[in-house]
Amino acid sequence: MKMAKNCLKLFINKTNRRSVQIHTPKIAPSLLAADFSRLGEEVKRIVDAGADMLHFDVMDGEFVPNFGISPPFIAAVRQITQLPFDVHIMVTHPLRYIKALATAGADFITFHIESADEPYEVISAIKAHGLKAGLAFSPKTPTTAVTSYLSDIDLVLPMSVEPGFGGQAFQRETLGKIAELQQVIPQLKRPLDISVDGGVTTEVAPLAIHQGVTILVAGTAIFRSQEPEAVIEKLRTGGTEDVV
Ligand code: DX5
Ligand code: ZN
């Protein structure tokens, strides 16, 4: 472990040509990859393994060609844990879902800039329920599409896969977007989490951490592992054995 930490420092020093604040990221396992037939056991297994928050994917079958997790599912998990809930909504009309998700136990609601509702209206509605507001954008959307909203939100999420399905490969172009977002942070008057979601593994985690990410969402890498505690720890510390 001592060796691994030294390697991380070396990696950063060698490649960092600009000022980046490196954080120990919060780890948010994505429940989409859980075995739903054993939901309670799965949640306990991952909470005990050291998750910092839980990530829920809500889909409407329209914004993305898939269905995801519903408010009653989130409410059921709320009975088991008090961890913060990071609810990622891939829906055409985010305004329709906010009340139900707030009631179910969401702490963050992250909607897509590509959705149909007016972004400031959605942000206001999320905040009116006392929740934190997040803004996601898909791989084909440039960072400039979200920059004017950054001073009004709590979390920004550059997607590292096309939204809708777990188990896809991490798109490395996302690392440049994380770097662009990191550069804007000093100009903001409030803290902003930078999250990344899709294809996150112990191999890519150090690269995202190096660019300044503060929340790592991972579904397959954590839930499909027999040793989720080791995976979470490796994601959090940068999985340096895989990098050097
Ligand atoms: C994709 C979802 C992700 C997904 C991540 O649309 O937003 O949260 O569950 O799963 P993995 O880590 O398997 O790519
Ligand atoms: Zn997600």
Concise summary:
With 244 residues, the chain is of the alpha/beta class.
Model description:
By secondary structure, the protein is α/β, with parallel strands linked by helices. Helices cover 35% and strands 16% of the residues. It is built from ten helices and eight strands. The protein has an eight-stranded parallel beta sheet with strand order 1-8-7-6-5-4-3-2. The N terminus is likely disordered. The structure holds D-xylitol-5-phosphate and zinc ion.
Present the secondary structure layout.
Elements: H1 2-15, E1 26-29, H2 39-48, E2 54-59, H3 71-78, E3 85-90, H4 98-104, E4 108-112, H5 119-128, E5 132-137, E6 155-158, H6 173-184, E7 193-197, H7 205-211, E8 215-218, H8 220-223, H9 228-237, H10 240-243
Parallel strand pairs: 1-8, 2-3, 3-4, 4-5, 5-6, 6-7, 7-8
Helix pairs in contact: 3-4
This protein binds D-xylitol-5-phosphate and zinc ion (ZN).
Task: Looking at this protein, list some descriptive labels.
binds zinc ion, eight-stranded parallel sheet, binds D-xylitol-5-phosphate, single chain, alpha/beta, disordered N terminus, 244 residues
Low-confidence stretches: 1-16
> Structural class, from helix and strand content?
alpha/beta
- Written as H for each helix and E for each strand, in order along the chain, the element string is HEHEHEHEHEEHEHEHHH
Shape type: globular
Give the number of DSSP strands: 8
β content, as a range? 15-25%
First-to-last CA distance: 13 Å
Name the helicity range. Answer: 25-40%
Rg, rounded, reads 17 Å
What are the distinct ligands in this entry?
D-xylitol-5-phosphate, zinc ion
Describe the main β-sheet briefly: 8 strands, parallel
Mean pLDDT: 91
Q: How is the largest sheet built, in terms of strand order?
A: 1-8-7-6-5-4-3-2
Question: What is the tally of helical segments?
Answer: 10
